[in-house]
Structure formats: C-alpha cells, structure tokens
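Bench log, entry 3. Co-assembly request; chain sequences pasted below exactly as received.
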Amino acid sequence: MVATARPGWSRRAQYGLFFSFLAVIAGIVVGVILLTMSLVAPKAFQTVRGAALDVTGPVAGALHEVTATASGVFTGAGNYWDAANQNAKLKRERQTMLRRMVEAKAIVQENQQLKATLQLREHDQNVVAVGRIVGSSFNSLRRFAILSAGGKDGVRIGMPVRSADGLVGRIIDAGTLASRVMLVSDRANIVPARLLRGGIPVIAQGRGDGTIDVRPLEVGRNPFKRGDIIITSGTGGLYPPLVPVARVVKLDDDGAVALPLADPSMISFAIVEPPFEPAAVAAESAPQAEDTP
Amino acid sequence: MVRAALSGRTRIGREPAPYAPYVPAATVVVGSLLAALPIISMSGWYPDFGFVVLISWRLLRADPWPAWWAAPLGLINDLFTGLPIGFSVALWSATMLLLDLIDRRTMWRDYWIEWVLAAVLLAIDQWLQWQLARTMGADLPRTRMLPPIAISVCIFPPSAWIVARMDAWRLRR
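Structure output for the full assembly:
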C-alpha cells in the first residue's frame, strides 16, 4: 500500500491511505520507544529475548550438529589417508607428553605445598552448565555467540563462560534452552587481566573483529612481547583469576593486539561458571547497569 | 494466435496462489531466521538478510504488504538477530515511508537507480547499527562499517532476482 499516494476523489480510498500512513508513523514511534527502553532499561525485555533464543537456539544447535557431522566425515576420511605415518608420529608425541605430564604433576604437588604454606584461600570452581557454541551474531558489529545451555541448566545473566582453552565471554541473555554470550572479542567486553610473564596488570578489550586490544594499566613503557600470554586477574569479581585469555600477536604504540586463545568456532564445549565473587559483582553492577543490551 | 498455441502454457484460468498475499512477509521472516544458521564468524561481515529481503520486495512492488506490517516484521528481526528491541521496528517502518515518498518524486526507475537506493538504505542501516553499538559502549572505529556495507550492497542484486522469481511464482505469472 502506498501510504502517501493520491488516491483520486474517493473519500473512502483517501481515508484508507491516510490511516495506513498514520499506522506507519505509529510503527516508527513505537520502534523508537522500544529502542529507548531497551537502551535505558535493558532488563525490561529479558523474558521476550530469552523466549526468542529458545526458538533459534535449538534450530542452530540442530544445524550445527549436521555441519559438524559432515565436516567430521571428511576429516575422518582424511585421517585414514596417511594412517601409518600419523600413527608413528602420534606415538612419538605420546612419549614426550608422558614425560611432560610427570613433570607437570610434580609441579602441581610443589604448588600445592607452597600454597598450603602461604595459606591461600582456594575457591572451589563449581561448573554451572556445559554447552556448545552453536551460532554467532554474524550479521552484526557486536560479537555475540549462542550457547546451547540456558536457564533450565542454571545459566543466569552475568555468568562467565570459559572453555578448556581459555576465556570465552559472559552471558548477556538467558532463555530456557539457550543463552547468548558476549565474547571477549566484543568491543564492550572489558576483562581485567595481567601478563603471565611478570604479572603486570593490563586491561583487555575486544576490537569487534575477533581480536583483542591489551593495554597496561600503568602508562609508560610497552610491557608486551609477541607471544605473551594474557590471563585474567580476578579483579572486579566477575571472571575467575588465572584463566588464559589471549596471546599477543602484534605490538602497537601503547599496547598490543592479541588473539583469543578460545576460538569460539573451534571449541567443542563451553563451561558456564558462577561469578567469581558474586558479592563484588552485585556491588559493582548496582550503580552502573548498562552493559547488557 | 499461432504463437500462443505454440507456447504450450495457457494463461487462462491461472490465478494467484491463495497464500500469495503472505508470501512476501514470509520471505522476510525467513531472511531474519537466517541468523539461526550455525555460522560462527569472528568478524560479523554478513549482511542483515531480513532488511535486504525487505527492501528487495519494496523496490520491486509498491504493495508487497500493508505498510504497517513493517513494524511487526522488524520486531521479529530484532528478536532473532539479537539487535536491541525496537531498532528494526523503527528503521523498517521509516524505510517504508521513505520509499513511498521517493516513489512520488521519481519520474522513472531502472535497475541502477534501485541498486543505488538499496545501497544508500543498507549503508544507513549499518551506520545506525554502528551508532547504536557506540551508545551501548562498543566504540568501534568508523572503518569497521565498510566491509559489511560492501558485502550487503553486493548481496542486493541476487536477493532482488530471487524476490522477482518468488513474485512471479506466487502470482502464477
């Protein structure tokens, strides 16, 4: 219906067009009001956004299953191609891994003894839920991913998400069956972190294109080197400490660009954990609750 | 007469499919639902499929759906793509109105003008998304808008072609 066209002399047609014009204007006004509400009071639409996730999440999960199977068949066939060589190589690798593991076990024991002498309080990290990354916001400037675990499994908004490789992000929308994760590479996701080498405190902020900006907290000499590992510091209370975040790949003027260690397209499982220090998070998010859309 | 007899397909008694009025809106919803595809991208350069399909239909015909349908279609898009609720509602309604006004002004139209119009609308869409990301605390560099704009402008001609085929199919032309 051409809402602004001239319909001729028919009163009835004129009114019809005028009301459709008004309806479009009303659509714009309602849209602007809804947008303002979702910017000012992000919690207002939690339920409806969660319900939409429950529709798309399982669909994406099922499709993900199909593509994973298809690619699994092809890589599986590829593995048979060079089986003998691969076998020999894997055996060699296994030998070296065994040696490393013995070393690591010794180090863990030593570490426990040292910690016991220092009487450090250990947080028992209990897992809330385990899910798979089944989709992403591939048509948006923001970096979100869809996780196949939701409120049914105990996932709540604000919980940190990690994988075996490193930090993935945190939950921003939770449906019953699926939830949405703000990845560490999103621009609005700021992670208090430190350098593994030397423990210099840094701030990691996503760049929106799959990489992360890291900046030292203290202004001065650029402390980064290529290949440096960034780990979470536990400051702020949301993310648990000592989770690997990213590896530095490029230096710039006052910081560096790093690649996340947990690539959401490669990790098979993501683990949702409770907030590290819930009390601290609550205290901090009370005055400025603006980071969820 | 002879040619008509040779063509084989009779044009008499062929009427639009009973569900013809709902096909355009349904294809827009399908476009929005493409967001559920299991693509895990690190860059987010894919186009806003729902919006591309919407302007493809609106540029092909003046009456694919009653103009106010743009608002509920936008709401569906917001819910499935994870945009802040209300963004597509306002943008899509405004697009319908803007294209109505443009229809009154333009003397003639061809594919190039439609493509330019679509490119301008898609650029506005991306620019607004960028502004929105800024207000929500994700201050991205301006150049980050360019790849998604270029890709969605290139996606428009295939989308317009598919939509034209769908239109012929639903009206049994």
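Chain B has a mean pLDDT of 87. DSSP finds seven helices and no strands in chain B.
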